[in-house]
Structures are given as C-alpha cells and as structure tokens.
Design goal:
InterPro entries: FAD/NAD-bd_sf, GMC_OxRdtase, GMC_OxRdtase_N, GMC_OxRtase_C. This protein is α/β, with parallel strands linked by helices and 467 residues long. The chain contains 13 helices and 15 strands. Bound molecules: 2-acetamido-2-deoxy-beta-D-glucopyranose (NAG) (2 copies). The site of one 2-acetamido-2-deoxy-beta-D-glucopyranose has 5 residues, from loops.
Amino acid sequence: MPFWRSSSVLLILCALTLSQAFLQEGWPDNYQLTDGERFDFIVVGSGSAGSVLAARLSEVAHFRVLLIESGGDPPITSVVPGLLITLQGSKYDWNYQAQFDEGVGQAHPGRILPYHRGKVLGGSSSTNFLIYARGKPQDYEEWNRIAPGWDWNSVLYYFKKMENMSEETVMMNPRNAYLHSTEGPVKVSRPVTLASTAAIDNTRLECYEEMGIERVLEINGPEIGGAARPHFTIYGGRRSSTAEAYLRPAKDRPNLKVAKFSTVTKILIDPHTLRAYGGTANVFNEIDYVQLVLLHPLSRGQVKLRSTDPLDDPIIDLGYYRNAYDLKVAAEGVKYINTLINTTYFRKVQGEIPRLSVTGCEKIAWGSDEYWECYARNTVASLSHAVGTCSMGPDAVVDERLRVHHVAGLRVVDASVIPLIPSGNTNAPVMMIGEKAADMIKADYLEDIVEYNGKDFKSFAYTNEVW
Ligand SMILES: *[C@@H]1O[C@H](CO)[C@@H](O)[C@H](O)[C@H]1NC(C)=O
Ligand SMILES: *[C@@H]1O[C@H](CO)[C@@H](O)[C@H](O)[C@H]1NC(C)=O
C-alpha cells in the first residue's frame, strides 16, 4: 500500500476517535418557521455578533427572539481547531470571490481572490483561524470621536464581559489581569499542544527581538507594540466559537428559536412609518481585511449588489492600493521583513530571499524599490477582515446605537458598522459589538436596565503615561 494511502487511513481513524471525544451534540434545534409568526427581535445571521446578540436578548424571558442562519451546525472540523484547514472552500464557507482593480493582484489567477466567510452556526467564528485580538485602545478612542460611547473604557467592559481568560501567566500579572476576566462565555487560551510549534514561535520571537521588537506577555496587554504568541479562542481542544460559547448554553430557552438553512431575502419597510418589519434579507453581509498586514490602509473597497436577486453573491471590490501611499508602505514593509534574513537564526540556516518571478513584474530589476512595489501590488492577498461597509456615524449608515438612520426598528450589528479599521483581527471586536448592542437594545426596551457607560470606570492600565 502506498504510504499516502496508509496515512490517509490513519487520518480518518484519528477523526473518528476525535468525533467520539467531542460529542457533536448540544447545538440548538432547528426551528421550523410558519407563516405569520411574530417575534420581538429577529437576528439575521448567527455570526460573531449575531449569536451573541440573540443569546443575550433571550436572557429576558419575555423577549421572543428568532435567529436566522443560512448554514447548519458546525462540523467536527470546526469544533477541533487542528482540522480547520479543511473548512475553507467547503460547504461551510460562503466562498465569495473578491476582485482586484486593474493592474493589482496579477499573481492571482483571474485577479480573483477567494473570500472566506463562515456559513454555519457561529459564522466565521466557527471557521476562522481562532486569533483573539482586540486592537488597541487608541482605535476605540478614535472610533469614539466618530460615534460617542465606543471609547476604550466602555468597550473594555464588554470585552471582559464576553471573555474567560484561561491563561494563568496573564491572570497572575496584575497589569494584565486587570484587562481580562474569567467570568465570560468565550474561552481564551494559548495552548502549547505541539512542542514543535512552540519552538517555532520562540524562534520567531527571538528574531523579532533581534530586530528591536520588544517581547511582551500578550497581544491584548497594556503595551501598545511588541510581539507575543497570540491568544486563541480555544479551550480544552475545542473551538470557542459564538455558537459554542453563546448558543449551546442558551439552546433550551423557550424564547430563543434558531432557524437553520434559512436565508433572509428581504426586509420590508413600511413607507408611512419607515419601520422595518418581517419578511426574510441577506443584505448585511459581514466582510472583513488585511498579510504583511497593512493595519490601517488608506484605500477603500466596496461591496455592491450584483443584481436584484438576493441569492446572488455580492460584488466585492477590494480596492487595494487605490491610495498610492498604501503601496509605498507595503513596499517598505516587504523590505523590512527581508531584513529578517540578517537575524542569527536565518543566518544559521542560511536563509535567503527567494527570487520570485511575479506575474506583471518580470521586466523590473529584482530587489529594486520599484520591484518591491510591483511585488506588493501583485501578490497582495487578504485575511478577510473587511469592516465599515455600513459604518456608524452622523453621516453614515447607522448611528452610534447602531440604528439605521431614518428607519425605525432596524439595526446593523456586525463588522460592517466599525467606522475605522481596528489594529488586529476582527472576531473579538465583533463579538464585543454583539455584547454592547444587546445592552443598548435592552436599555431601549426595558426600564430597569442601564447599559454600561465607561466614564467612571477606574482605569490604571491606560493612563496617559502609557499611551
Ligand atoms: C472559565 O474557564 C475555566 C477553565 O479555564 C473553567 O474552569 C471555568 O468554569 C470557566 N468559567 C466560566 C464562568 O465559565
Ligand atoms: C544584511 O546585512 C548585510 C551586511 O550588513 C547588508 O549588506 C544587507 O543589505 C542586509 N540585508 C538585508 C536584506 O537587510
């Protein structure tokens, strides 16, 4: 038997053993909708924000909540973090195709980039690479200038509300522990399951240190810059998606119904009252950005309807490098990364920069500034962390309480409302948005609920002295 065959058998055996270890039960039942049913809140999409919102709203026993999701239960490949690579391009992925402008991304066939978004309970929190990164306090202070109420202290309250930080080194250090909580539903840890991966991480961190990048305890700690192994939404070998952390524990609530394999195609708006009501929309797709990551690009893309058919995928124009400054920054970044070659480790292994021949750059002298610009322009890819297509702000789509301007009874709660690109992966901020939105809605509909307002929150970690 050829070797690859026996190893694939082994893989299947492993998967079977795993599936017994991680019982695939406990997801909410599928709810069969009938015509004319009424709910107090209809949440479209069970992603990083939707599941949080539906679960939190259904804590109020007299709120009847419907959560609508196009996909079904997370498969074993989602639950077990090590198997996640098989999710991209599968039926658990919306498999969108994003497009580059003319002259950009020529290294990608057809100038098309697969754009991965989870189509499953938990959305992309069930299919992503599990990185838990909040972004920087400054991101939120700037955000707060556009939409009051989103300052760092206010959002920190919700980051803590959702999180169960299982890593002791973080909780033992008061400067760090202050920023975290062990009481929330989303488990966060830094598993060292494979000694080999830990060693690679260590080597990488040493290289960074040699380049003058400080090593810090964690990426969500009080330091603004620095390098550390990231935190993951994993605990006990299980992915802590929003389906896992929020929907499973809420699955028996009689006032929370989850309609799976259901797609909203329309939101009806009463022309006289401008109030949104039932009907079934897929308008608010959560999109995300960024690999040598341009954290704060100036270029902007667009998401547009392809047709009037709600089941058609949207047109995703990445818009990369529409602003020429981004290209300068990216080319400088590539050159900076190249200096890794001069660190002790890479010298030891005699690392070299491969002389890639990039489609579109064949005629440019390898290694020149012009070459690196061409390289950056044509190899650019995406980590699928786009934000801001339905941004909040006075002149934008929603207000700071996430209400669609001029329409009653309709809010947008997902990555699309983020007004400025945060310094990191989007899953954590989007879960935070779900938490904060739930409190805003409760405050609007219940008399005895006061949502958190960070003004008198005692903070020592983020005083001016730190940033
Ligand atoms: C938080 O996680 C720990 C494991 O690190 C667990 O023992 C504890 O019960 C969790 N707390 C909550 C509130 O779920
Ligand atoms: C590595 O160091 C050498 C010698 O100091 C220098 O000439 C070279 O430009 C460096 N390479 C990179 C990619 O920084």
